[in-house]
Amino acid sequence: MKILVINGPNLNLLGKREPGIYGSQTLELINSTLSEYASGLGVALSFFQSNSEGEIVDAIQGAAEEYAGIIINPAAYTHTSVAIRDAISAVAIPAVEVHLSNVYSREEFRHKSLIAPVVLGQIAGFGPLGYKLALKGLIGFLQKN
Questions:
Q1: How far apart are CA 19 and CA 94, in angstroms?
Q2: pTM score, two decimals?
Q3: Which residues carry out catalysis?
Q4: In whole angstroms, what is the distance from residue 31 CA to residue 123 CA?
């Protein structure tokens, strides 16, 4: 089983960017830890990060041929991107939305996700652990279906 992990804008700055909100782990460390965890579950992961909405849409569209599921942290695009929402809907690959921080305890504009209605579920507020929770939930769903 292969799963694509997509990270959106500014997540390449993890470890430096607002550690009080996003923690001190880098994206590379989060990916490495998640990859080890997935390997223990017999799952192969690929990772993609972009600050560009169009590149994220392209990655989602390209996933249809190769991946059983998607884990996505759309970051700021969560609240603004109809294009990413439509791409997830169009490819019909099971996906889980992840956020490091609890977006619902932050600014009001972060309380609305355009992505949530087209994914299996959303995990927010557990820091890097959220990726493992998303992976476990996605694998469970894929194994049932």
A1: 30
A2: 0.92
A3: 22, 99
A4: 17
